Amino acid sequence: MSVLTTNYLTPTGREEAWRFTPLKRLRGLHDGAAVQSDRESLTTKGALPSGATFTRENLEPLSASDDVIIERVRGAVSSVAHLSISANTELTEPIFLGRSAGGLDTAEFSRVRISLGTHAVATVIVENTTDTVLAEDLEIYLAPGSNLKFVTLQEFESKSVYTARHHAIVDKDATFKSITVTVGGDVVRILPTVAFKAPGASADLLGVYFATAGQFFEHRNHVDHAVPHAKSNVNYKGALAGKDAHTVWIGDVLIRAAAEGTDTYELNRNLLLSDGARADSVPNLEIET
What we know:
The chain has a nine-stranded mixed β-sheet with strand order 4-5-7-9-11-13-15-17-19, covered by helices on one side. It has an eight-stranded mixed β-sheet with strand order 3-6-8-10-12-14-16-18, with no helix packed on it. It has a two-stranded antiparallel ribbon with strand order 1-2. The chain has one helix spanning 68-76, and strands spanning 2-3, 35-36, 42-44, 52-58, 79-85, 95-99, 108-116, 121-128, 133-142, 147-155, 161-170, 175-184, 187-196, 202-211, 216-225, 231-240, 246-255, 263-272, 278-287. Helices cover 3% and strands 53% of the residues. By secondary structure, it is mainly beta. It comes from Actinobacteria bacterium BACL15 MAG-120823-bin78. InterPro entries: Fe-S_cluster_assembly_SufBD, SUF_FeS_clus_asmbl_SufBD_core, SUF_FeS_clus_asmbl_SufBD_sf. This is ABC transporter permease.
């Protein structure tokens, strides 16, 4: 175990990216105070089908990130849990990934890669459970013509802290569908992001969350339309009940000058079921010329 290095810019809460997040409840993930464990909790559930492998490899990140916690993860961890679906594999049953026992006294830093070969088709379901303090860099690559349905279930115990970036790179004519369900944990902060690599790519980012008394859930979507004729749809819906239940949804869509023929849509709806609950919703559309 080791104390995480502190040679990163520590958020203060005044930054736009951190203005809603309760930094004091992150258990040191943001400022280097957390003690890093050697846990590698992500596991497969059941036998993998033919055409799928789950290994641990030393892999370079697929993309840059300006998130300080992700930078800490990358600086601390070289081993990547890699789920690979080979080209032309069409899986009819979902692959389930789960968590082994966690802990609250130390923090796990996790790097994950999910990659689909050309024309592969798969459904991957990640069940996030247990008591844990977990920061995760999860990257997804969809090769041309592939199709992935990616489901994450945040069902952590009540004291857990989970911060993550779920970033998908979608290549030519590939289809990505993400479904994010968040119902458990003390603080959950997820960055579901997409970058399109070639024309014909499409992405659906769907989410549902239910926060009860004292819980804080934040989902920061970002879709980068950098190529022509790509399509994105972002639709998140939430409900809140109980004193100090707080949710945050940020919907950032960037349409770059080269992205002719872009088709994009985003929606967030929240249902407040009691007094004392708060839902922040901030859509942002930026169009370069």
